[in-house]
Write a structure and sequence with these properties.
Number of helices: 11
Structural class: alpha+beta
Helix content: 25-40%
Radius of gyration: 20 Å
Bound molecules: adenosine monophosphate
Order of helices and strands: EHEEHEHHHHEEEHEEEHEHEEHH
Number of strands: 13
Strand content: 25-35%
Mean pLDDT: 94
Distance between the termini: 16 Å
Largest sheet: 5 strands, antiparallel
Strand order of the largest sheet: 11-10-9-12-13
């Protein structure tokens, strides 16, 4: 019998555990010893401190017990290999772990978004094809560190001397970033819009505070390292396009894997001056951009008439699945 929601101390852990408690679950947090701040928030009934998270998850899965569902987040995926998660992680995970491979590999991700027939940036197969402003994304780049912009092949050659390994070159879409947090409920067969955020990225979000002449002189290159998130709402007339995009991505996920997307997912987009929403990335699990929406977001309040965060929406789905004896529909 599942009574407990567990997660790892990072990313959206506070969000997940608060939501779980609000729905009446017991909560368990596995955290690194350096993160004692978790005990200050009273959202974990039990905190287990570990030295090495990756090693713990690989060797001590039985710690979770038979009464737990684990909610994975961005850091969970980075602690373990996708192969390990797919084949050897035995504790029920909320969501579809078989979609993680598709969000982690830029080529598969591109195939997914293209297959969904939503607007995506042009991808240049070879640097010599760059014919407009492009953003070069190194596969190993964490949090947008090490991305660079290139105007053409010569510019690419100048800036790419230090990169090794795989990278993707995307058209740089001019517009404003908007990150849409969706939730697909297999129990209700419905795509919900939970919230929208935009990121606070250092140093790119502060470059306009430096006069252009000084920027040139200092030769500062933009980096996109995320340090926080702002809440957003979108023009109401654009909501139809937003839901349409979310639904297409879910449909395509069901062609990729029988179960398709389950629970929270995020489309990272740029909205152009022509009001076209261009998706450049997808996350197949809860994203940190949902954190400003504790305890609620405009869209979840509109739908439910009460405060619902992403963490709480996850717990609601798990609870409904337990009550209807269909936990296997929302876990993998
Ligand atoms: P990512 O780490 O892929 O989410 O990208 C980091 C940041 O780079 C985003 O928040 C955007 O500001 C910017 N970005 C990424 N891809 C594109 C693109 N194709 N066009 C314009 N901006 C982009």
């Amino acid at each position: 019998m599942i009574t407990k929601i567990a997660t790892l101390g990072s990313h959206t852990a506070l969000n997940i555990l608060r939501g779980a408690k609000d729905e009446g679950f017991e909560t368990l947090l596995i955290a690194s010893k350096k993160r004692s701040f978790y005990s200050r928030f009273n959202v974990a009934d039990k905190i287990m401190y570990v030295d090495n998270m990756g090693e713990f998850l690989a060797q001590k899965q039985n710690t979770f017990g038979k009464d737990s569902v684990v909610v994975p987040h961005g850091s969970f995926i980075s602690y373990l290999s996708i192969d390990f998660i797919e084949k050897e992680f035995n504790v029920p995970l909320f969501g579809n772990k078989f979609m993680f491979r598709w969000e982690s590999d830029r080529n598969l991700e591109n195939e997914w978004l293209k297959g969904a027939k939503i607007h995506t940036p042009k991808v240049f197969d070879d640097p010599s094809e760059i014919d407009r402003l492009a953003i070069v994304k190194h596969f190993g780049a964490k949090g947008g560190r090490g991305y660079f912009l290139a105007r053409d092949y010569n510019d690419f050659k100048k800036k790419s001397s230090g990169i090794t390994g795989e990278y993707q070159i995307q058209e740089y879409v001019i517009g404003v970033p908007m990150y849409f947090h969706f939730f697909y409920s297999p129990l209700d067969r419905e795509v919900e819009l939970l919230s929208i955020d935009r990121r606070y990225e250092t140093n790119v979000d502060s470059m306009m505070r430096i006069p252009a002449d000084d920027q040139k002189e200092l030769g500062i290159a933009p980096s996109y390292v995320v340090v926080g998130n702002f809440p957003l709402v979108i023009r109401e007339s654009m909501l139809e396009d937003v839901f349409d995009m979310g639904e297409k991505v879910v449909k395509m996920s069901q062609k990729i894997d029988d179960k398709g997307l389950i629970g929270p997912f995020c489309l990272e987009t740029i909205c152009t001056p022509d009001l076209e929403i261009v998706a450049f990335e997808i996350s197949a699990r809860i994203v940190a951009g949902t954190n400003p929406f504790i305890p609620s977001s405009p869209y979840t309040y509109l739908k439910y008439g009460k405060d619902i965060s992403c963490g709480r929406r996850i717990a609601m789905e798990i609870k409904k699945a337990i009550e209807s004896d269909s936990l296997e529909e929302v876990t993998t």
